[in-house]
């Protein structure tokens, strides 16, 4: 039979002499009834029920010092139970629930097997640990409605009135140039362009003076170096290393250094774009020098002109379709063109390299392999090809469990796979045609193989996600390894304000589930349409567990809030060092811009891929 224990928690003032207090409180009880100065309560009543009701302290109560049982009924007075008092001990998860949860009465399901086997006892805390077990966390079902946790219009306005949004400093044109056009992404682009221009100018001067010291081999080397840099900035291990180096900065580092380093960590796409454009410019010079210097047979010259013309056409397609407006409007077309045109261009460059090397070997009467190994372009192309093939070597089809949260969102769970926080993965039904990147929610400190895993929160944002929610699969393709996401830089700033809209709360939970609350205070601002109905009570519980004073906005009831005003007021109220925004491109750019022009460090995704 299933059983349950009803307990009552009260406060007792702390005594000055801790040893004397311990002797008085413990008396004939064993020392295992005390943890960190707290006394676990004794059973007050036993009955044949399957639910355990746990009264908890209101948040206004001072920190718990010493806990005692206000009424402890002897076991003889219980006429409804067949188990002894000694067989029922207070597990750590009950202790943690009473200490950390909000005020209210909760129902926590207790399994019969657990009671009979004694797995809920205090000497087996790992199984029932509230702080470490996401399953135990999800089994917590409140009997009260979360309506009071949703902020009203009046509450939102009152928060903004405490710290009104100040006027923007400087002229609008200067602010747009400084914080929009001259972003860290474009600063990295300018840096890469400057390096390439410094190398191109001497070559152009030599060409005008008919100096043959620069050859098409030099231009081919520069083209290969830029292509390698462009591919490296999209390689998962390179990106993860950049984030690891940046996040290794101590929190005592000056704020302006951490701010610039954080921006550079997730703006590496600027190097990718600039290196790709520079490779195209170098390739044009390569063609010009090839026309002047290449002296192969008629067949070799015909073949080299066909190869170079087709490669130049592919470079033009890649550059034109990578234009941001076109990429946003025709994302699937851009993805296909970028993948297949890029692969084809690399293959054509390999063909040109082999053709020119063969021609040079025949003219100089040398082995082809010797000349090839002494050519820098060969090694650059080899590294580029390996980096392109690497994600596809790790392509795998993984089992998933889909949990429909609503008609608008679903949660994909990947069991038995450990993943670091703030990481993203690439999912697909057909990897060659369509791939989608999603942030993951890592489970905090798994204690066993059955508790390992991570999940992905998917909301309806297009045809692909709509089909996934309507007909969730049992398996899905995952390409490459996990890639550290922008939210990883949030650990650099303490305190911190997180602003999320819709399913953007998913990446935030990946960060919040693994942070240390005491050492990294954080304020959450989450705006979503019917958050409890859309994303489920479990997600709402996770948010409130991470920040019990979280600002949760139901846009169906309160309309779209002033996220800039709420974020600024939260920064001032808790003296936060920075704001991290996880939302759609329009909201992210606007909130980041409005905060930065007011002197608040703000960070948001780039959306360049």
TrEMBL record:
Give TM segment ranges: 184-205, 237-257, 269-291, 303-322, 343-362, 368-390, 489-512
Would I find Repeat among this entry's keywords?
no
Q: Does the keyword Mitochondrion apply?
A: no
Q: Which UniProt keywords apply?
A: Membrane, Transmembrane, Transmembrane helix
Domain of life of the organism encoding this protein: Eukaryota
Q: Where is this region: Disordered?
A: 1-25
The name this protein carries in UniProt is: Integral membrane protein TmpA
């Amino acid at each position: 039979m299933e059983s349950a224990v009803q307990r009552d928690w009260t406060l007792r003032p702390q005594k000055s002499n801790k040893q004397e207090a311990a002797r008085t409180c413990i008396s004939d009880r064993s020392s295992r009834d005390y943890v960190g100065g707290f006394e676990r309560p004794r059973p007050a009543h036993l009955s044949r029920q399957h639910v355990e009701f746990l009264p908890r302290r209101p948040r206004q109560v001072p920190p718990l010092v010493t806990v005692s049982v206000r009424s402890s009924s002897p076991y003889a007075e219980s006429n409804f139970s067949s188990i002894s008092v000694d067989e029922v001990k207070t597990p750590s998860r009950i202790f943690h629930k009473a200490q950390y949860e909000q005020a209210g009465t909760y129902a926590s399901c207790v399994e019969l097997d657990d009671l009979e086997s004694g797995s809920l006892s205090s000497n087996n805390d790992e199984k029932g640990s509230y702080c470490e077990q996401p399953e135990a966390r999800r089994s917590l079902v409140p009997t009260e409605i979360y309506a009071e946790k949703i902020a009203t219009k009046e509450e939102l306005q009152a928060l903004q009135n405490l710290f009104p949004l100040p006027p923007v400093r400087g002229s609008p044109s200067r602010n747009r140039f400084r914080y929009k056009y001259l972003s860290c992404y474009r600063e990295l682009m300018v840096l890469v362009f400057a390096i390439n221009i410094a190398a191109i100018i001497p070559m152009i001067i030599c060409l005008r003076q008919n100096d043959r010291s620069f050859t098409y081999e030099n231009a081919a080397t520069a083209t290969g170096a830029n292509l390698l840099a462009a591919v490296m900035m999209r390689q998962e291990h390179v990106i993860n290393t950049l984030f690891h180096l940046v996040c290794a900065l101590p929190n005592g580092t000056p704020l302006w250094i951490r701010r610039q380093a954080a921006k550079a960590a997730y703006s590496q796409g600027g190097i990718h774009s600039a290196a790709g454009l520079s490779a195209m410019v170098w390739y044009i010079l390569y063609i010009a020098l090839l026309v002047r210097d290449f002296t192969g047979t008629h067949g070799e010259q015909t073949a080299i002109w066909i190869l170079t013309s087709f490669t130049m056409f592919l470079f033009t397609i890649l550059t034109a379709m990578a234009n941001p407006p076109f990429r946003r409007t025709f994302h699937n077309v851009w993805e296909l063109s970028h993948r297949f045109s890029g692969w084809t261009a690399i293959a054509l460059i390999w063909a040109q390299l082999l053709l020119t090397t063969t021609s040079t070997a025949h003219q100089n009467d040398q082995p082809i392999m010797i000349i090839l190994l002494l050519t820098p372009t060969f090694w650059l192309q080899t590294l580029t090809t390996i980096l392109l093939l690497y994600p596809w070597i790790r392509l795998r089809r993984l089992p998933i469990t889909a949990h429909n949260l609503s008609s608008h969102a679903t949660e994909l769970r990947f069991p038995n796979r450990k993943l670091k926080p703030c990481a993203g993965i690439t999912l697909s039904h057909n990897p060659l045609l369509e791939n989608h990147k999603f942030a993951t929610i890592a489970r905090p400190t798994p204690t066993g193989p059955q508790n390992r895993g991570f999940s992905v929160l998917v909301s309806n944002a297009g045809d692909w996600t709509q089909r996934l929610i309507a007909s969730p699969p049992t398996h899905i393709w995952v390409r490459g390894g996990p890639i550290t996401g922008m939210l990883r830089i949030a650990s650099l700033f303490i305190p911190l304000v997180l602003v999320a809209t819709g399913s953007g709360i998913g990446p935030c939970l990946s960060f919040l589930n693994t942070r240390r609350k005491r050492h990294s205070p954080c304020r959450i601002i989450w705006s979503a349409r019917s958050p409890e109905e859309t994303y489920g009570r479990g997600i709402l519980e996770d948010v409130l567990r991470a920040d019990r004073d979280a600002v949760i906005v139901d846009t169906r009831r309160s309309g779209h809030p002033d996220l800039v005003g709420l974020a600024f007021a939260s920064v001032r109220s808790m003296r936060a060092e920075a704001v991290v925004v996880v939302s759609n491109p329009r909201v992210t750019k606007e909130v980041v811009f409005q905060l930065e022009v007011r002197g608040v460090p703000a960070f948001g995704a780039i959306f360049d891929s």
